Amino acid sequence: MAETHFAPFQPPSRILLGPGPSGVSARVLSALAAPTIGHLDPQFLKLMDETQQMLRAVFRTGNRLTLAVSGTGSAGMEACVVNLIEPGDRMLVCVNGVFGGRMADVAARAGAVVRKLERPFGEVFSAAEIEAAIAEFKPKVTGIVHAETSTGALQPVPEISRVVHAGGSMLLLDCVTSLAGLPVEIDEWEVDAAYSGTQKCLSCPPGLSPVTFSDRAVAAMDARKTKVASWYLDMSMVRNYWSQQSRAYHHTAPINMNYGLHAALCEVLEEVLPKRFARHLRNHLALRAGVEALGLEYAVAEACRLPVLNAVKIPAGVNDQAVRAQLLGEYGIEIGAGLGPMAGKTWRVGLMGVSSSPTNVLVFLAALESCLNAQGGECRAGAGVAAANASYVASAKS
Ligand SMILES: *Cc1c(COP(=O)(O)O)cnc(C)c1O
User: Fold this and answer.
1) Atom of ligand 1 nearest to the CA of 145
2) CA 384 to chain centre
3) DSSP code for 303
4) Which of 69, 241, 290, 381 has the most other CB atoms within 10 Å of its CB?
5) Mean pLDDT score of the chain, rounded to an integer?
6) Which of 169, 180, 124 is nearest to 305 (CA)?
7) Which cofactors (predicted)?
8) Are 137 and 92 contacting, i.e. CB atoms less than 8 angstroms apart?
């Protein structure tokens, strides 16, 4: 027993530019710190109703079954899979990064017969290859990741949705990193089930996972012959707690996390979605101009590049770990390392939610320049910042 005294944790000041969590506004933080009330208190139930309404607005859906699962984005993934899949059901999972791989693992654990359709990290799928795989495998559910945070690639959805439905399958979409950062159109794209997370572009700490299910998905869940493999994530019970009619106790909702999500959703809708997406794009373009001026290249083709997660190649001779350590230690800036086959080869710079700001872009570029030069680089003084500023001027004109 070496330690005898403990003090409440004091987190250091950080600029969060990694793959999540993203920065959290003062308003959301103070909502989290409000007094805890009961999970069946009428005032809390009112907050739950409003949260559902705001989630529908952000997901762009009329789906009744739209709520926040208690748990991080992975819990939302698991909730969608275990409720749609019964043991022996076929599920096609498109894997072009870590999160597609995780979805395949979750599906196999749920008892699905899983077929993985694979693409190298950083690439995206064509509707034609998914159509062919569905024609052959005839899956009940087809799962795909909209914004692959592990690689920085953005998967176009509308055409894929068409072939999934034409093949008699349901579409499950991972929107963890896309929701509230770039357009997500659940109804227009006819997505059957989708999940997200609070800690990416919603700019709330990790802890809740918004999910939404179409009528077709709900009908499939109602027609199940077996119980959902997970007690905690069983939507037939969770939805009774969220439903105004029953309000049946299932588990105690993480009360203060729900305050936080409610406040974060208010901020998203106050900004108005198209403006929020335009802000994310503007800051991405400025960051891109800046990192390219510092001599870095993107790891993903321009046509499918995610604006909220910039995967850039680490220049030859530069020490990955040393740069990230200096960014964090000297400047308080967190960026992400590469994952899977991209480990050691790329950095992942997130510009999500409140973290997506000109201030962060300019500070990051100035800090990166000094870290690269500390590694023997020869960045021209201020080149990144100048290019980013020029990009902001150009966006203001257009
Ligand atoms: C972060 C992320 C997840 C997992 O979310 P957690 O909050 O870490 O559980 C799943 N899918 C994608 C695309 C993500 O970016």
Assistant:
1) 13
2) 27
3) G
4) 290
5) 97
6) 124
7) pyridoxal 5'-phosphate
8) yes
